[in-house]
Amino acid sequence: MVQEFSLQAWHEFYTVLATATAALLGLLFVAMSVRADQIGTKPVLRKRALISVQGMATILVLSLVALIPGMNGPIFGAAIFAIVLFNASGYVMATGKVVRQVGGQSVGPWIRTIANGISAVFAMSSAISLWMNRGGGLYLLAPSLLIILALWCIAAWHLIVPPEALALGEHEKHEHREASKARSHRAVSSRR
Hints:
This protein has seven helices and no strands. By secondary structure, the protein is mostly helical. Helix 3 packs antiparallel against helix 6.
């Protein structure tokens, strides 16, 4: 059997991916517990927590399913299809709520949504390829999983350090600089 359809040939990849994702998911739970008071009171952070946990869990579940002894391509393709549909529907709903709650249309959610869509296309192509036993097979799934991993690391970071807080911090720095300039200007004017 060729490598693009042999889960056995990809065993190490899925073992490393499952291990890394489980570790990141554990760290995410620790970070969420440290900020539990803020996550519990802010709907935007609750949605980000949901998005982050869902994404990491998706990668972990796909990796673990791939590692089931005797798993074959068509069955794994069906699992990919079901998991990606579940993940995509939850992501779209949660992201829409976050965008509405944060207000405005920043470019970040759109970039993440497009990247998530590209990842879903790769995953669905892989599922179809595995069902038909032709095409790129598991080689199509690898970029999808890596894109999802990167997206969910960004989502987890935005849960811990919300971009809105950074924007407010920049606004406060700007106000502080302007106040300092005004004080300096008044000090120079009073000396004259």
